[in-house]
Amino acid sequence: MNNLDRLVIELEQSGAADLLQQHLIGLEKESLRVAPDGTLSQKAHPTALGSALTNPRVTTDYSEAMLELITPPLHGAKQSLDCLSDIHTHVYKNLGDEILWATSMPCVLAGETHIPIARYGESHAGRMKHLYRVGLGHRYGKVMQVIAGVHYNYSIAENFWPLWADIKGDIKDRHGEQRLIDAGYMAMVRNLQRYGWIIPYLFGASPAVCKTFFGDQATNMQEFDEGTYYEPHATSLRMSDIGYQNQKEESVGIKANYDNLESYIDSLQCAINTSSPVWEQIGLKDEDGSYRQLNTNILQIENEYYSTVRPKQLLQGMEKPTSALNARGIRYVELRSLDVNAYQPQGIDETQMLFLETFLLTCMFQESPTITLDERPEIDNNLLLSARRGREPGLKLRRNGTDVPLRVWGEQLLSSMEAVCSLLDANEIGAPYQTALNLQRRKIENAEETPSALMLEEMRENGESFYHFARRKSLQHNRYFHQRKISSETEQRFIDEGVNSLQRQQQKEAADSGAFDDFLAKYFASV
Length: 527
Hints:
three-stranded antiparallel sheet; Creatine Kinase, Chain A, domain 2; single chain; seven-stranded antiparallel sheet; alpha+beta
C-alpha cells in the first residue's frame, strides 16, 4: 500500500467524505459571437445582456465578440452545469441572428483589424480593462486572444481543513490554518503542473484550425483540406505553441515560482514591477497620447501571466490578485487548460467535471515536492508534446530525467486516482466518480476515443473542413438552447442582473473623479 492509499483510508475513517461533498465548483466558459456564416461579430456587446464590466454572469474576455459565461460557486457538478445551461439559454434569447461558436479555435478571421477589442465604458476601471487588452494585442497579436476555453474553479469546504490539520499534525490557530490551506492548494497546483499534460490528452478538442487563423503567416502544420490546417496526432492546438502561451515569456524573463504562496506572489509582483526592454519598444503611448499598453513592465497586470492553473482569492473592489492572495490566502484553484468541447452544448459535461474533481484532489493528496530547475522544462515540454502529438503511437514524455510512454504514465495516473474515487463515491449512488474515471481510462487505452480523434474522424467521414464542422456544431447548439426552457423566475433574475449591472456601470462612471493617469498610478502603487 502506497502513501496515497494510506492517506485516503485515514481520510475515509475520519469522515472526510461528508466534508468533501461540500466543495464548491464554478465554471467560466468563453464563446465567440459570430454571424450565421461564422464570421466574427462586429457588433457591440448586446445591451440586453447587461454591462460587461459589472454583470457577474455574462461578461466579455479579450474581444467584444468573446462572451464569457460565469456560474456562481455551487455545490456539485450537476448544479454548476445546470446553471451554465441556464445562462446559455438566456444569452441565446438575446443574440438576434448571431450564434456562439462551438469550438475553441476561431474561424473565418479577416485579419487583426476585424477583431474588436472589448469595451467596458468610460469609468476608470472600464478604461483600464480595455487598455490592458490593447496592450495584449500589441504584445502578442490579436488573433491569439480569440481562442476560447473553459475554466474550472474548485474550492474545498472550509470545515475540511481542521480535519486535514489533524491528519497532517499541523498547528490550528487561525493564521496556522490559513497557512495549511495555502500549502494544500499550492501542493495541488504543483502537481497539476506536473501531471497537467493529461488534460489536453483526455479533453483536448482542437486538433485542427481554419487557415484564416494564420493570415499571411507561414506555418509548418499539415494541410487537412483547402481551408484547414491540422496536426495528425494533435489533441489541443489551443494549448500548443500556436496558442496563447506567453510565447515571449522567455525573452522577457518570467516564470512563476510555485514553491509556496509567498514565492508565487513575489515572482508575479516582480514581473508587474519590472520594466521589459522588449515591451519598452512598443512604447507606452501614441503620439496623440493614447495608451498602447498599461505599462512597459514584464506583465502589465498579474492576469497576463498565462498558466494552466492559478491559485485564486476573491477580489475586493480594485484589489490586485496578488494583494488579495497576500491578505487572505488562497480561496480556490482555477484550472485553465480545458478546450471547449464541441460535442457538448455547454462546452463541458458532468462526467468530465467529476473526473476533474478527482484529479485535483489526487494532486493535493499525493506527495508534491517543489518543482526543480531541471523539472520545469520537462513540465513545459510534456504539455506541448501532449497538445501537439498526444495521440502519436509510442509517444514518450519525460519524467525526472527518464523517458516514459504517455500511455504508461497515463494509466499510472488514473490508477492512483482509484482510491480518491472510492472516497468521493462513499456517499453516492452508483459510483459516479469511478464511472467517470473508467470512461477516461478507455481514452488512455485507445486514443481514437479522445475528442480530438473523434473530431478529425467526423470531418473525414463528412468531407468537412474545420469551418464546416464547427459551424454545423454551432448551429446544433443554437437549436438546442433555443428549444431549451428555463423558469420565468430564473429568466427574470438574469434580466434583473443585466439591468442592475448597467446601473452599476453608470454609477461607476458618475463617481469617478481625477485624471485617468492618476488612477493608474494609484492602482499600480497599491500593495
